[in-house]
Amino acid sequence: MAALPVRSVRHASPLARGWGNWIFLIPATLFFVGYMLYPIVRTLWLSFTDYRFLRQAPANFIGLQNYQFALADPMVGIGLMRAAVFTLVFLPGMIILPLIVAVLVDRVRSRALGAFYRVVLLIPAVIPGPMIFVMWRLLYNYEIGPINTVLVDVLGIFTRENAPQWVGNPSLVIPAVAFFEWWWGLGYHTMIFLAGLAAIPRDFIEAARIDGANEWQVFWHITLPRLRPVLAVLVILRFGTAMAVIEEYLIFGGFNRALPTYTWTVYMYDLAFQIGEWLQGYAASIGWLGAIGSLGVTAFLLWLFRNKDG
Amino acid sequence: MQATISQPTSRVRLHHRRRVRFSAVLRHVVINLFLLAVVLPIAWIILLSVKTLPDAYSGKLLPTEPLTLSHYEFVLTRMPQLTQNLTNSLIVTIGSIVVTSICAVLAGYALVHLKTPGRALVITICTATLFFPTRLLSLIPIYEIQRSIGLLNSVWGLILPYVTLNLAISILIMRGIFEQIPSELAEAARMDGCNAWQALFLVMLPLITNGLVVLIIINFVTAWGEFLFAATLTNDQSKRTLIVVLARAFGGVGQFSWPRLAAAYTLVIVPGVLIFALAQRLYFKGLTEGAIRL
Q1: What is the ipTM of this complex?
Q2: What is the mean pLDDT of residues B176-188?
Q3: Residues of A in contact with B262 (CB under 8 A)
Q4: Which end of chain A is less enclosed by CB atoms within 10 A, N or C?
């Protein structure tokens, strides 16, 4: 039924050939344009205006004023720093732990056991994010949480009085969030590394072993270099998501500015939907500043990984 | 391997074998420690949900009184609001899975098996969005859009922004799946007189079921647990999804006491884990069929 119009288009102009197939891309394009492209461009436009949602007056173009203001706003700087600190704590564990598990699981000979390990490791990956956060808020609970119970009653490292306040203590909340993020991502990232490991030819490794290489040498000289593309993608992707984390912070710290969970993302949300007249123009400029900042680092990481490849 | 090396003396060989066995044992021990770390937190939550109230608040790991299902009963029968929220979550999740899958299958097919101009550009855009905080930067205008078309505070309205959350990755996954199907198959179907649509639905669709399982699981997890849009775009407690209500409800005493919260958590977590456990064979097949190549 679609053949007829396509054929007539082909007759009309050879250049137009194949454009009829775009009909398959229309649904995806509609959603992409309506709920991603347009909103992002609109946010860019808003960032150059004094738009406040709850004020009746229309938005006025004010040039770069929001950006100037944001760069001088101590909360923006602190917010970006806090996000960067979290990223630095979170990123190494999110790469190294799954890599270790993947290398170990990859060597498991038994098919059934290997499959079992994979399924169990992936269980957290099918639990929705916010569910993980509320679940861990319970686990971290000062009084009844099992983590403190183990520390106090089983190991006796702390007493009930000086047990760590994982969520309430500003210096503990970031490691606490990073830890459950590792727990959550472990299985998924292990699967990605396993896919990368499966692509390394076995005889390559066998040959190295025959030449007398030990396990460490095999890992450092064959496995790791071969995993570089996978590593690069994961580091860059996770860097981006870690800098833009918001839901964890909203659930763990709310809008408490004193806590390190109040990063630029929470500040932006706070400004756009909570404080005063909803200063969405200003919030938009903070969003774009954060995005540009993390994109800059992403570009640097891309360059770093590509450079070493050659 | 055995053939290529000269026969080692038996002592060296024994030593080697013992070392191999030791390292294999160590490997399984370490893997199992990780598995334990994965399973224990979930096990504790489930245990909490069947503890009696005094046990739940005693701060002890193991229960001293007999276990009870009363918290589940309470959550399911005495909290009608929560049942409403559960229905909302189901509507939004199923809606987004269906719409996203349709978009991704059609797009993936056109990108791989049809001569579609601009293919490279589409793939570049999809990949680029993965590196960009799209959700954060689109939130404010999406609020405006939903308000202007009257979909603010609407359960069904949430489906629209939810589709875009995973659209790019879903398209890339389907592209990976379709690439595994030989193009000769598509050509043969066209020779037999199928048009592009018939080739997709009659020939391709039965071959991409494993990929669809991956797609459904990924989209299920996102939509079932989405918090930011749901919390921003709905106001009434009766219009909210289960996740938003549970994230806001903080334990203590009363309606949302700890074990009741744990029971509610278990009810939210279990469907996903069950679907995954049932479909895991297809899921892993889908992964090896190229779904994981980003």
Answers
A1: 0.84
A2: 87
A3: 138
A4: C
